C-alpha cells in the first residue's frame, strides 16, 4: 500500500517482468544513482545507452535526497517526443549533440537465482514516484565482456522511470528552470545524503563510463551548483569521485541489500 501511496505503480496481477525475461534472469538499466551504487548480486555491468529519451533533474525527492517538508531533486528520463513539447532553456544545446536522443548509463545482469530479491530491492529503492518499464538497451561492448567497436545487439532492460504523470514530476515550468533546480539541489538533503553529492556523483559516474563527460543538462547543473556552493562544491566533487571509484571496486557479494559494504 505504501508503494501505491507514493505513486509507484503495482500491477494488479502481480509482476510481469518474467514475460520480458523468460529465462528468469534480469537486466536493469541505471541512468542515475544505479551508475555508481549498483544493485546487489549483479554479475555483469555493461556501459551503453537507451534511445528516445532525455535525462533531467525534474523529479522531486522526498526521501533519498530531500524530505516531504523540503523536497530535493533527482533524475528521471523523459520520452523525447514529450520533452520536445515542454519549455527547456537548454534545448538548443541538446539538439546540437551528435548523441541526441541517447541516454548513457550502465546495465546490470542479475542471475535468475537472485532476480526476485533484486526486484524487491529496486522496488523499495525506487518507490518515490518511479515505476518499472522495459526498453531496448544498446551496449557498447559485447555482453560477454569482449570489446566490440560496433557494440552488441540491443537487449531488453528494465528501467525505473518517474513519468510526467507521477506525483513527484515537476509540472510547474518555473520549477524546471535550471537555476531553480540547482538551488534546490544545493539545499536538498535526505536519507541518502546531500543533493549536491548526488549530482556530482552522477557526473563522475557518467565520466567513468568512458565517455569523458556527462550530458549537457548534468554539466550545466554542476556549474550552477558549484557557483552556489563555491569552495564547498569542489571538496564535495572530489569526495564524490573517490566514492564512485571505490564503490565499483567492491565485489557485488560484499554489498548488502541496502547498498552498504558488508566488510568495513
Secondary structure layout plus pairing:
Layout: H1 2-5, E1 26-30, E2 44-51, E3 53-61, E4 72-79, H2 80-83, H3 91-95, E5 102-110, H4 115-125, E6 131-139, E7 155-161, H5 178-187, E8 189-190, E9 193-194, H6 195-211, H7 216-229, H8 231-247
Antiparallel strand pairs: 1-5, 2-5, 2-6, 3-4, 6-7, 8-9
Helix pairs in contact: 5-7, 6-7, 6-8, 7-8
Q: What name goes with the CATH superfamily? A: Gamma-glutamyl cyclotransferase-like
Give me the strand/helix succession: HEEEEHHEHEEHEEHHH
Strand content: 15-25%
How many separate structural domains?
1
CATH C-level class is Alpha Beta
Question: Could you tell me how far the N terminus lies from the C terminus, measured between alpha carbons in angstroms?
Answer: 35 Å
Mean pLDDT: 84
Shape: globular
By DSSP (H or I, 4+ residues per run), the number of helices equals 8
| Sheet having the most strands | 5 strands, antiparallel
CATH architectural type: Roll
Helix fraction, binned, reads 25-40%
* Estimated structural class: alpha+beta
What would you report as the Rg, rounded to the nearest angstrom? Answer: 18 Å
Unreliable residue runs: 1-13, 145-150
Report the CATH topology name.
Hypothetical upf0131 protein ytfp
